[in-house]
Amino acid sequence: MPVxxxxxxxxxxxxxGNLSGKKYAAFGNFFTKKVSKVYFLYICSLNQKxxxxxxxxxSFLLFLLLAGGGVLNAQGTNSLSLSPHKVKHFSLKQAVxxxxxxxxxxxxxxxxxxIAKLKIKESVAQGLPQVNAAINYKDNIARPVxxxxxDVTGRPGQDIAVQFGTKYSADLSGSLRQLIFxxxxxxxxxxxxxxxxxxxxxxxxxxxxxxxQVSDAYFNVLSVAESLRIIDSxxxxxxxxxxxxxxIYKAGMAKDVDVDQMNLLVANLQASRTFLKNxxxxxxxxxxxxxxxGENDSVVLTQTLPQLIRIKTHDPLLLQxxxxxxNVDFQSVITxxxxxxxxxxxxxxxxxxxxxxxxxxxxxxxxxxxxxxxSGKWYQSASYGITMSxxxxxxxERIAKLKQAKIAYEQAQVLTRQTASQLGIxxxxxxxxxxxxxxxxxxxxxxxxxxxxxxxxxxEKYTHGMASSLDLLNTHNQFLNAESDFISAxxxxxxxxxxxxxxxxxxx
Length: 508
Description:
Layout: E1 8-14, E2 29-35, E3 38-45, H1 48-67, H2 69-75, E4 87-90, H3 92-102, H4 104-125, E5 130-139, E6 145-149, H5 150-153, E7 159-163, E8 168-181, H6 183-250, H7 256-291, E9 298-301, H8 305-313, H9 328-349, E10 354-367, E11 379-389, H10 397-463, H11 469-504
Parallel strand pairs: 4-9
Antiparallel strand pairs: 1-3, 2-3, 5-8, 6-7, 8-10, 10-11
């Protein structure tokens, strides 16, 4: 064999994971082989001279890669490999559980709950001893002058200017305050606890709202994926029929209008497929957002629409009767009414005196020369006592505040009755919507089977020349409409079941 026909194969040691055949296909025909965590690159060429030139080029490239390997490894990635992204597999329950930890709204609601807990500590601390200290220092650059009558100093008729005090002065003081009695403190402490209960109810409400958002987003992704599956399957069949029709037309056994109609069907299906792919990406983006995932993360759903419909329609929770007192919205209104009742009590105790015990201590130093830390005396003083703050006259301010609090409480009572009535109506409406959706779903399921059967038989007749392209077009559209109605009915059934389930969920 001539030398120019001999293939050159040179093993070259490379950095693990940094090289692939796709990246450097321009340098010749080669393949990679991994041996003991080291990749060997085999470069093959049918021309010796050309092969040597390629070896030089790839060797120079490898030299650059090896020289920059430290930088690439330090950065944790390189230009020859894609940054890793997370791939999450979720059932519906797993998706909901994941969102309860990573959803942005749930995280912020959890922070509100933490703040409410700290508010209780703040309220308790107001009734515990309060200790404060202060340090004061003065440099009397111009001491005040006082005028004394001359009679005092033995100089009748003359005014004597006298300066009192020293040039420098400093004092250290401390105070202790202890609440003995204040009605506002005890009411505020109760209000902080009720506020925590209210915040906890709101936190649970937010989690239910996120659960509904995640579930709806999960259902939307599955419904679009199911529509895509139907479109893809129909498109393959239609493309095959279009090719067969084209061949029959060339043989003179079909009309050009039949070819045009088949091509039109294919074009419409391709347009629908493009639209659904975009909708699928949007539905995926919303689901990842509600889950708290990043934009580059991937989500794989492990359940299908039929599976979820079977699970939801057999959920024993949906068969339970509605209990008003277990509903979180009603409980939230009740806790709000408790808070407004405490506001009334707070306005009442504003008429009651408050008693505090106080202890003060102070030490002073006065100097004409700055030597506070060297010598000189410090003069101490201390006192303790009890103070009573007695409200006497506010010119109607406290009475106005009390009346406002009573009116707000009356509004809360009305809101409680209103909420009870609304929730009863909401339960009946949601329950009826669920059973209506279930009935529509069962009907659309039957229609889908019939439309699929008609479309399949018409397709067989068309391939045997027993049906026209117009017949196929009509049954094709009928089949797609039946499939679309079926998927929409399943989606509505799942969403209505989710709403009913949330309404029947007992508050924690």
